[in-house]
Amino acid sequence: MWVELVILIFTLISLGFLYFHLAQRRHAAFWSSKNIPFVQKGTTWSELLTWKKTMFDQNYYAELKKIGAKFGGVYEQGSHALFVNDPDLLRAVFVKDFDHFEDRRDVKTTDPMMSKMLVALHGQEWKAMRSFLSPTFTSGKLRRMFAQFNSSGKRLETHVGNIPVNPETGCHVVTIPELARRFTVDVIGATVFGIETGALSEPDPIFYRLATRAVKPSKFLIMKFLVFIFAPKIATLLKIKAFDAEVINYFKGILSTALKQREASKEKRDDFLQLMVEARHEGKGEKSENGDKTAMSMSDDSIMAQCFLFFFAGFDTVANLVSLSCYVLAVNPELQEKVRENVEAAVESTGGEVTYDSASKMDYLDMFIAETQRMYQSQPRLERKCTKAWKVPGSDFVVPSGMIVMTDPEAFHFDPAYYPNPEQFDVERFSPENKAKRNPYVYLPFGLGPRNCIGMRFGLIEAKVAIAHLVKTFEILPTPKTPIPIKMDRVFSVSKAPADLEICLKFRSKQE
User: Fold this and answer.
1) Peptide bond between residue 485 and the one before it cis (omega within 30 degrees of 0)
2) Which residue(s) pair with 391 in the sheet?
3) Are 322 and 180 in contact (CB under 8 A)?
4) Given this model, what pLDDT does residue 15 score?
5) How far is CA 59 from the centre of its chain?
6) Average pLDDT taken over every residue of the chain
7) Are strands 71-76 and 79-84 parallel, antiparallel or unpaired?
8) Is 33 domain-assigned?
9) Distances (CA, A) of 121 to 155, 395, 480
10) Which of 63, 105, 110, 426 has the most CB within a 10 Å radius?
11) How far from 357 is each of 57, 154, 224, 459, CA to CA, in Å?
């Protein structure tokens, strides 16, 4: 019996290798017939599932750079796809000719929460939702919400002060990814869900615990999302749900209660949920607070889907940015002092308070965050799905409708042709003078074009507030356990700060 089982397993593995080998040859022949270079180095399902590789495509980028190609054909889990290696072509795909690339890759699911999220919508449905949500992130709206950002920043200081201090060093030793997640949960709870989560005042509040669980990677979660991305018909057939049922039910309960309270009391708050409530009124023919109307009607599922998207997209990514920023400051004291001087100069006219106006004056902090995002890019790739046949400029190749066109932000960020000495952290890369000299399409932390990250400004302000409060109040120092240099965790397709990354926060003396 065991012999037969071993033979069966060996046969299946051999057939699998044979299938992929023949598929590679077939795809190579396709691209060769188009006179387009074919890049064979990529990732397989098994490599993704075992975390041996991620979806970061620097192999594609490097191979095409070697031969001076601006784009090339790749093999993507059974399909032809085009990899773009040139910033001017990126501009054409993501911006100039966006009407040919309006959609993202199809992620079909029977999960109503996931299917109604902005990132999963297509065509006119996406345009309507994007147009409706965009006003949430204007400078005026963010200014109105800023008091909640700042309140979270003050609670962050208090939370650190309540952590036991080492009497010999005066250090409050923190695991910075956890601290940053508590801050972002506190902000998002207030600005999206309209509630006080207790993330910075209680040791283990349920909101924080379930939020952390929702984004914690696992091989099972990875497998589900791979099925959603590469085998959507199977996901639909098996009725696979994207998210943990307990997590979803908890947050749906909070949102449902908050919606009913807003409707019943006519309470108006400066948060994301308020915009959704106004959308419901507009769908019934009522006017919103500013007197505008929209043809869009928002169901409970649509409201909850956008709130969930905003939460999932902004919670861990901003926490990761704050964590890595604090690490860089801890191991670069001179740089930390420059950031601190910039923050203190900005808040001098506001009595030491971090306000919307004072934050907008923190130009050096802006440059520092931009360089942090270049060095530690978390978004693994940018993709668009061709929705209307498109001829590649300077080529005879026509991208057919349905083909995925992609690129790799991290590869651009570490290309010495655009960023000399790319392994070196250099804030001055993002001075106004140096930015003006560089092609803007080689800096890609939030994507490009009309389908870029809609919450970009929100996330940057959130990160600025956290960093400003920390450098204003504390010295940020390494501990004996702080790794130098840092080794990033690569989970599925996302680059993250190590979960156990430790730093010291020490209250600054009043004499400083």
Assistant:
1) yes
2) 398
3) yes
4) 53
5) 22
6) 85
7) antiparallel
8) yes
9) 37, 31, 48
10) 63
11) 40, 17, 44, 17
Q: Please tell me the distance from the alpha carbon of residue 26 to that of residue 75, in angstroms, as a whole number.
A: 10
What pLDDT score does 42 carry?
56
Q: Could you tell me if residue 357 is inside a domain?
A: no
Tokens of 481: 């356990």
Predicted pLDDT of residue 229:
66
- Cα gap 74→81, rounded to integer Å: 5
Residue 399's DSSP bridge partners are 390
Structure tokens at 200: 């910075």
Locate tokens 């509040």: which residue? 205
What residues make up the domain containing 19? Answer: 1-100+382-430
Instruction: Compute the chain's Rg from CA coordinates.
Output: 24
Q: Are 455 and 434 within 8 A, CB to CB?
A: no
Crossing angle, helix 176-188 and helix 456-473, to 10 degrees? 130
Dihedral sign of CA atoms 187, 190, 193, 196 in order: positive
Report whether pLDDT(322) > 60: yes
Structure tokens at 439: 């092609």
Does 387 fall in a domain? yes
pLDDT per position as a tens digit, 88-117: 999 999 999 999 999 998 776 667 777 888
Mean per-residue pLDDT, 407-423: 95
The angle formed by the CA atoms of residues 246, 278 and 304, to the nearest 5 degrees, is 15
pLDDT of residue 271: 79
Asked whether residue 171 is marked as a ligand-binding residue, the answer is no
Strand 474-478 and strand 502-507: the pairing is antiparallel
Pairwise CA distance, residues 57 & 304, whole Å: 33
φ, ψ at 506 (rounded to 5°): -125, 125
Separation in Å, CA 334 to CA 83, 338, 465, 471: 40, 7, 21, 13
Q: Tell how strand 382-385 and strand 404-407 pair up.
A: antiparallel
Nearest to 464 by CA among 330, 307, 271, 326: 326
HEC states along 76-91? ECCEEEEEECCHHHHH
- 385: which 2 tokens? 């799905």
Residue 372 phi, psi dihedral angles, 5° rounding = -60, -40
Q: What is the DSSP letter of 171?
A: B
Answer whether residue 36 is part of any domain.
yes
Rounded to whole angstroms, how far apart are CA atoms 304 and 258? 11
Whose CA is closest to 291, among 300, 303, 281, 299? 281
Strand order in the sheet with 79-84: 38-39, 71-76, 79-84, 404-407, 382-385
Distances (CA, A) of 346 to 12, 17, 44, 459: 65, 60, 49, 20
pLDDT band at 371 (very low <50, low <70, confident <90, very high): very high
Query: What is the token pair recorded at 382?
Result: 């940018």
Number of other residues whose CB lies within 10 A of the CB of residue 86: 19
Q: How many domains does the chain have?
A: 1
H or E stretch covering 342? helix 333-347
pLDDT digits (tens, 9 = 90+) for 15-67: 555 555 555 666 678 888 889 998 875 555 556 555 555 555 457 898 899 99
